[in-house]
Amino acid sequence: MTPLDQFKIFAGKEYQNEDGESHRVKVEPGFTEDEIEDLAQIFPEMRIPDDIMELMKYASGFKFDFFEPFSFNTIGWFGLENIFPAQVQLTGDGLGNFWIIDIKQNGDWGEVFFACHDPAVMVKQADNLTEFLQQLQEYGEKHEHSVFHRIYEEERFNAWEQPDAGLIDLEVARNSNDPALKQFSLILPEGCKIADLRKESNGSGFYWGIRGFDLDNVIRNNDELLWAFVPTEKKSFWSRLFGR
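User: That's the sequence. What structure does it adopt?
Assistant: Structure tokens below.
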């Protein structure tokens, strides 16, 4: 099923909020072909995949339930470019937390992540935009019994409370039987911690706010869901004193 197919199903239903009030998805008018062509210039490889372009022509975004307005053109708004070099900030919850979609180096749209600041965790929400729209539909129908609600209310705290913040010690990675993980670890400086979500299910995540690591120096292994957190350089008293 394409993102547009799922979006039409999602947007075509009537929902009830937790107060029992009926509401529908408010679809914003789609982009023109010229607007999409201009937008493509700021995406990797100046490319928007056909299935995403199809969706953009139908809707530029939408409004739904408690969320901030959803947008499909907010590329680079989120920040943390070392974790997600290219990403679209889909929406937020109004509390400083956001849902973003990872844009690959060839322009493909990848996984959706819940980027939470309190606690400071990154949680895998969905494998792709179609699944994310399915989760929103289920949330509108089932509320607290939905996958979306579970990730939002529970899994972010589970990611925060897990041992070692969900990060792998460098020596463990260097002795791993996983070829990609081992090869990645061998190019990293000492003291790094690695986050690996390549084979993890939705709701899995890691704590990115860990002290002693520099968010400006996070290293990503190409398009893989594999990151290294580099320790903050420890400066001597005199270096700190003179700002060196």
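The helical segments are 3-11, 33-40, 50-58, 129-142, 147-161, 170-174, 179-186, 237-242.
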